[in-house]
């Protein structure tokens, strides 16, 4: 945002051409005043041209602001779409994570089943080993029985055994023994067959369990691979969306910065228009003063001509001439703005750990002391401590003066109150406000500066060379 002080030079350009002092007005000719009026008309025309240019600039800025807002709206819509996709993608990723977690649980369960199956296989192997030992024992028993039969002739005829009984009691005994042997042999054979079948069954059961476990393992692993692939694709999509969103956010931030710059530029244009308005008002005031001056000079010239014709050569003529208005005392000089002691002079001054240059005079007066204009002029600027345009001067008044064709500016700072307004003509010794302690002030006082031409920071001249 531009500062009013950037434009104060333009304000002073109008004031340069106007002689405000009553004394100097009388010293100028009708021709001089007419020339000043023409210059003011020319400057007014330039001001109007400048104002038209500012209006065009403002319209252009408004158009850019509208386009900027449209772009921001488009980018925000795109960001909303991307954000919606991100939300869905993030949700899908969470679902895939849950599925992968469940798959991992299944894999853990499968591992436990595999461990249990291994234990079962160990137990089956132990049982098989016991069955094999039992079979071996039974095979050995049968082998011994067959060997015994072979040793007794190679054949065993149970009928002969029974018929060889010498008594009925012996026959009954032999019959019982034969049955026992036959039953024993039968049991051995049946047990052997059952054990063989049990062994085969156990083997089949183990193989089936192994196949089932391997099949489940392959399915779970395949499912895990597919889930990891899907999750990787979703992560990749999320990464792309994050990049897109980050790009859009940068564009949005850039557009917002551009919008802020345009707004600031628009404000600066409006401020410049306000300054132009004040310049136009000041120019109008200056023109009115010049016209009043012209009228007064013409009336005075007419009166002097009439007097000269009616009383030519008389002593009264000389007395009348000597009674004409003259420039005020102290032409090119200024009066003291306040009655009080000077507490800080113009020039370098030092303090503990610092050094600076004082571009004015400080008058040690209490709050509320009347402050007066040092010379006739026009109030070119009024600034308060709240608008921040005068860098620590607090409540401040600037007055532009034209003395003997030369322009000066006086500054009155740290005021408690201000009783004049911008564009107002003030006379020498006219009250413009009261002293105070506003802005960057260490105590109640008046800070007073004099500048050649318009005010410029740190360009003050020593007021003591001009004060009378």
Give the SSE map.
Elements: H1 4-16, H2 22-27, H3 30-151, H4 158-163, H5 168-310, H6 315-322, E1 342-344, E2 347-351, E3 354-358, E4 361-363, E5 370-372, E6 377-383, E7 395-403, E8 406-418, E9 425-426, E10 431-435, E11 446-452
Antiparallel strand pairs: 1-4, 2-3, 4-11, 5-10, 6-7, 6-9, 7-8, 8-10, 8-11
Helix pairs in contact: 1-5, 3-5
Could you explain how this protein is built, in words?
The structure is a single chain. The protein starts with a helix and ends in a 16-residue tail after the last strand. It has helices spanning 4-16, 22-27, 30-151, 158-163, 168-310, 315-322; strands at residues 342-344, 347-351, 354-358, 361-363, 370-372, 377-383, 395-403, 406-418, 425-426, 431-435, 446-452. Mean pLDDT is 77; it is low at 1-27 and 315-332. With 468 residues, it is of the alpha+beta class. The longest helix is centred in the middle third of the chain and has 143 residues, at 168-310.
Order of helices and strands: HHHHHHEEEEEEEEEEE
Low-pLDDT residue intervals, each spanning 5 or more residues: 1-27, 315-332
Q: What's the pLDDT, averaged over the residues? A: 77
**Strand element count:** 11
Helix content: 55-70%
Structural class by sheet pairing and helices: alpha+beta
Distance between the first and last residues' Cα: 40 Å
**Number of DSSP helices?**
6
Sheet of most strands: 9 strands, antiparallel
Query: How would you sum up the global shape?
Result: rod-shaped
| Radius of gyration from CA coordinates | 59 Å
Task: Report strand %.
Answer: 5-15%
